[in-house]
Amino acid sequence: MDLKTATALRRLRLVSAPEAVSFLLLLICSVLKRTTDFNAVPVMGMVHGVLFILYVIFWADAWNRTKWSLGTAAFYFVLSVLPTGGFFAERKLKRAAEDAVIASRARQEGVVNA
Fold first, then answer.
1. In the predicted model, is pLDDT for residue 6 greater than 90?
2. Cβ pair 16, 89 in contact under 8 A
3. How many CA atoms lie within 13 A of 19 on its CB side?
4. How far apart are CA 36 and CA 49, in angstroms?
5. Partner of 8 for a Cys bridge, out of 40, 47, 62, 80, CB 3.0 to 4.6 A?
6. Of 74, 106, 80, which Cα lies nearest the Cα of 13?
7. Chain mean position to CA 79
8. Is the model's pTM score more than 0.90?
9. pLDDT digits (tens, 9 = 90+) for 67-82
């Protein structure tokens, strides 16, 4: 894995959890708007919208650089529209990055999978 690919995956991973948190806060604000006089939906909507757009941009960049299959790319996109999906995406991307580092080190040391 080259540096640009690793960077693309890291950016996607770093925006996943905040996007999921903003989605959950937006849902809470929506409920509070309807049950109380508290209305933070416009602010949280904007915050979540910006984070979602960043997620989609970083997702597209990661898909382009990693050459994911259509199924893998769709999986990460679907995770972005689920309220807690960003947490799962972050965990899965972290695991994939760690596996890629291990595989890269094994190639450098000449270790071949048997």
1. no
2. yes
3. 29
4. 23
5. 62
6. 80
7. 8
8. no
9. 999 999 999 999 999 9
Range of the domain at 98: 3-109
Residue 97 has pLDDT above 90, yes or no: no
Is the pLDDT confidence value at 1 over 70? Answer: no
Assess if residue 63 is contained within a domain: yes
* 114 lies in some domain: no
> Which pLDDT does position 112 carry in this prediction?
59
* 1: CB partners within 8 A, 6+ apart: 100, 101, 104
